[in-house]
Amino acid sequence: MKNRPNEVVYNLEASKFNWDIAPGKTIEAWGYNKQLPGPELRANVGDTLVVRLTNHLEEPTLIHWHGLRIPAAMDGTDVVQKPLAPGEVFEYRFVLPDAGTFWYHSHANETVQMERGMYGSLIVEDPTDPVFDGDKVLMIDDMKLNSDNEFTRPGWFVPRIVERHDGREGDTLLINGKENSVIDIAAGQTERWRIVNSSSARYFTLHLGGKEFKMIGTDGGLLEHARTLTEVLITPGERVDIAVGPFEEGETILLESLRYSRSTFLRPKRQQFATVNVGEQKASIAYLPETLRVIEPLARQDAAITRKVRLSVGPSLADGMDFLVNGDVHAHDKPVKVGELQIWEVSNTSLMDHPFHLHGFFFQLIEENGKRPEYMAWKDTVNLPPRSKLKIAWMPDDRPGRWMYHCHIIEHHAAGMMAHFELVKSL
Ligand SMILES: [Cu+2]
Questions:
Q1: Of the residues 127, 160, 175, which one is the last residue of a structural domain?
Q2: Residue 239 is inside which H or E element, if any?
Q3: What is the CATH number of the domain that holds 388?
C-alpha cells in the first residue's frame, strides 16, 4: 500500500498457522500473514520500504533482507539487532537502491523457522525494465515431513549427522508453497519468471522439458545480455530471472530440477516441481533489448588478493563434522575499510558444495578456478563446488557496521560455516 509518495508500507505478522500444501495435505507452517510464502512485496527502485514486523511466535525472530544494499542496522541479523521477543514489534525502514529479485527470510533459529516457511519475495521494479507479457515469482522449496505431514526432528545420532552434513532436504517439493503447482501461460506470450531458491539445502537445476529460455538476471539484477539456456543451476539463496516463451497453445511442459551431485549421503534425483500449461493464444507486447544494461567491471582478473576465505570441514566429537571458515566455527574476520576495494579469494577445500553468501553487498566474480567467468553479473550468493577457488571483487560503500558472510546451506551455517566482520570508516 502507498502512503506518502515513494513510501511503500507493509505489515508482516509472524505466526504459526495451518497451510494446505496440497488438497487434504495440511502442515503446521510458520510464516508471515498466514501465507506460505509470505506476501510478495513490490516497490520501485528508490522507494522507501517500511515493513512493520509483529512477532506472534512463541520464540524470538528477525527478518533478513537477502541481497539488499541497506544500512547494517537494517540487515536483520542478531549481530545488529536484538531478536524480537514474542509480542514485540519492529519497523524495518530503508531505501531500495537496486532493481531486481530479492527475498526476505527469518535469520533466527533458521533451520526451523525457514524450513517451516518464514520467507517471501521482494521485487524491486525499475520503469526502464524490459517489457514482458507477465511477471511471476516462483519460490522453490522442499520440506521433510513424516507420513502425518509433521516436520521430523532428527533425534538419533545418524539422522542428525546426515542432516548436518547434507543440509535438510525433503521429498515434499514446493513452488510458492504448493505441491504439483500448475503454472499458466498464454500461447504466443513471453513472461519474466523470477526464480528464488528459498530451500535449506536443495540444489535446483531448472529444466523446462528441454525448451530454451533466456536467463536475463541474477542476484543483483539484470545481466548485460540474455543467455539462451535449457538448464540453469540455482543454489540455496540464489535468484535467476528468465524470459520464457512463446509456446504453442495446448502444450504441457514439465518444470523439473535435474540431478545435481553435491556429494551428499542422499542420492540426487531428477524431480518434477510443477507443470506449465499453455493456454489460448494472446497478443504479445514483450520486447527484450540486445543490451539489458552495462556492468562496469570492478577489477581485472589478475587484481591482487586482499583476503582469503577458506571453507572447509573438520571432525567434531559431538556432531560428526564441523563446518569451518578459515579453520574456525562462527569465525570473526578482520575489519574491512569503507571505500577500499576488496578482492577475496574464496576457496572450498571440502568434498562437498557450498553456496557462499555475502550480506549487504554485491560482488563480481572475476576468476573461477583460474579462468575468467563467461559473463558479467552482480551476485550476492555463488556456489563453490568441491576443491574450487573463486576470486570475487566488491566495493564496501559507506555503510559501516557489522556484516557477515556464510554458507547458505542453512544447516552448514548453523554448524559454524560463517564469519562476522566489521566495516569501519578507518582501520
Ligand atoms: Cu555449506
A1: 127
A2: strand 239-244
A3: 2.60.40.420
Q: Are residues 114 and 191 in the same domain?
A: no
- Determine the distance separating the centroid of ligand 1 and the alpha carbon of 65, expressed in angstroms: 20
Q: How far, in Å, is the centroid of ligand 1 from the Cα of 251?
A: 38
Residue 417 DSSP SS3: coil
Residues 247 and 344 reside in one and the same domain? no
Q: How far is the CA of 378 from the centre of ligand 1 (A)?
A: 21
Q: How far is the CA of 356 from the centre of ligand 1 (A)?
A: 8
One domain for residues 105 and 142: no
How many angstroms separate the alpha carbon of residue 201 from the centre of ligand 1?
8
Q: Say if residue 191 is in the same domain as residue 121.
A: no
pLDDT digit of tens for each residue in the chain (427 aa)? 545 679 999 999 999 999 999 999 999 999 999 999 999 999 999 999 999 999 999 999 999 999 999 999 999 999 999 999 999 999 999 999 999 999 999 999 988 999 999 999 999 999 999 999 999 999 999 998 888 888 887 666 667 777 777 888 888 999 999 999 999 999 999 999 999 999 999 999 999 999 999 999 999 999 999 999 999 999 999 999 999 999 999 999 999 999 988 877 777 889 999 999 999 999 999 999 999 999 999 999 999 999 999 999 988 877 778 899 999 999 999 999 999 999 999 999 999 999 999 999 999 999 999 999 999 999 999 999 999 999 999 999 999 999 999 999 999 999 899 999 999 998 8
Choose the final residue of a domain: 72, 103, 127: 127
Q: How far is CA 9 from CA 42, 76, 218, 351, in A?
A: 10, 17, 26, 45
8 Å CB contact between 419 and 405: yes
